[in-house]
Specification:
- Strands 2-1-3-10-4 form a 5-stranded mixed β-sheet.
- The radius of gyration is 35 Å and the shape is globular.
- The protein has 3 domains: 69 residues, no CATH class; 174 residues, 3-Layer(aba) Sandwich (D-Maltodextrin-Binding Protein, domain 2); 106 residues, D-Maltodextrin-Binding Protein, domain 2 (3-Layer(aba) Sandwich), CATH 3.40.190.
- By secondary structure, the chain is of the alpha/beta class.
């Protein structure tokens, strides 16, 4: 766009009221003014001045546009991912996830950032898988057990005792990720907080059986979908509940036992009621960090690398931290009066075998397609 001075505008258009006659003389004056026939030098200087002004203006405008475009490009490169976690913020699992987020945000400045929206108060646990699949949320921190209706093969994380980095090395991670991408529209980033399992906690001291197990028929246990089939195979009465409902159920006597990892257990206040912990633990903690696949695919290679590098590093870091923190929290609850009931002998072995069988059987019932391949890669 060109902007002309008022003098130049007069020169180029002849639109000067003093020259504008109504007859032939007026028309002649306009023509002479336009061509500079009466004063060629004035016309030349005026036009040169105008061209110089316009050139300077255009250069300034172009430079401003360049700076603006550069700023926009820098801003556009930084992608912000909205995320949610499955436990309240004070819980150890949420705190662990926030450490992963901090790693990404530190490494990803100017490229990719994670904005944590909250926990189950934002998206209830039963809706997490659907929310991620639909793209309502970009990134989710949640156990595979919450996805089983959508991706039954996710049970492999709890059924196996394999370390996350070993599964990456043997090809198991690529296989299970491809299944999540197809069934859940989810790209797996990490299996974090592994290395420990779930425990049964009871209100009253469990009765032991001759084979070294406990009498499960006397228990009414709160369960998550992950271990419901296992508990049913043990002969317990099972009530499936969200974690947020457990405190009230224990308080009212609706249940007399619960199952959860040691990590985060006391943060719910459940240890106020459950004074006994049953050993050994069962399954492996199956907490995942995953993304909506379409969102993952839209990221730049640089952003994907930052997320992958942080995920791989934090798998190992969180594994070691989980083991240490579990030992510490177990001692805290024991020091607070909780007692440990240890299963032994044949009863113990049967308990662990039943746990493993229940997981693989359920996977095979829901979709046997990949079970054999998964068994080889997730020992």
């Amino acid at each position: 766009m060109f902007f002309l001075s008022s003098r130049a505008h007069i020169a180029m258009t002849g639109n000067d009221r003093s020259d504008a006659g109504s007859g032939p003389a007026g028309h002649h004056n306009k023509f002479e003014t336009l061509t500079g026939s009466k004063n060629p030098e004035l016309f030349r200087r005026t036009v040169n001045h105008t061209e110089e002004f316009n050139m300077r203006y255009l250069k300034a405008l172009a430079f401003a546009a360049l700076l603006g475009g550069f700023a926009t490009a820098v801003h556009a490169e930084e992608v912000v991912l909205n995320a949610v976690h499955f436990t309240p913020a004070q819980n150890g699992f949420a705190q662990s996830f926030l450490k992963f987020v901090a790693k990404v945000n530190e490494a990803g400045k100017g490229v990719v950032q994670i904005n944590v929206r909250g926990g189950p108060e934002v998206i209830p646990n039963p809706q997490l898988g659907t929310a991620q699949k639909s793209g309502l949320v970009d990134l989710v921190n949640a156990p595979a057990g919450l996805y089983l209706e959508m991706v039954p093969e996710g049970e492999v994380f709890s059924a196996s005792t394999a370390k996350p980095w070993d599964v990456r090395a043997n090809g198991g991670w690529d296989l299970i990720n491809s299944i999540y991408e197809k069934k859940g529209n989810a790209h797996l980033l990490a299996h974090i907080d592994a290395g420990t399992g779930f425990h049964i906690f009871t209100v009253n001291e469990p009765e032991m059986t001759p084979d070294g197990s406990i009498d499960f028929s006397k228990l009414t246990l709160r369960s998550s979908p992950l271990y419901r089939q296992f508990f049913e195979a043990l002969g317990t009465t099972v009530i499936v509940q969200n974690a947020g409902d457990v405190y009230t159920s224990l308080e009212r006597g609706v249940i007399n036992g619960n199952a959860y990892p040691i990590m985060g257990y006391a943060s719910f206040g459940w240890d106020k009621f459950t004074k006994y912990r049953v050993d050994p633990s069962f399954f492996q903690v199956d907490v995942l960090v995953s993304m909506n696949k379409a969102k993952w695919d839209s990221l730049s290679p640089e952003a994907q690398k930052i997320l992958n590098d942080a995920a791989i590093a934090y798998e190992r870091e969180s594994y070691d931290a989980m083991v240490a923190e579990t030992d510490r929290l177990a001692k805290v609850m024991i020091d607070g009066g909780q007692k440990v009931v240890e299963m032994t002998g044949a009863g113990r072995e049967k308990f662990l075998a039943t746990a493993a069988k229940a997981s693989w059987d359920r996977m095979a019932e829901r979709d046997p397609t990949n079970v054999e391949a998964l068994r080889k890669l997730f020992p």
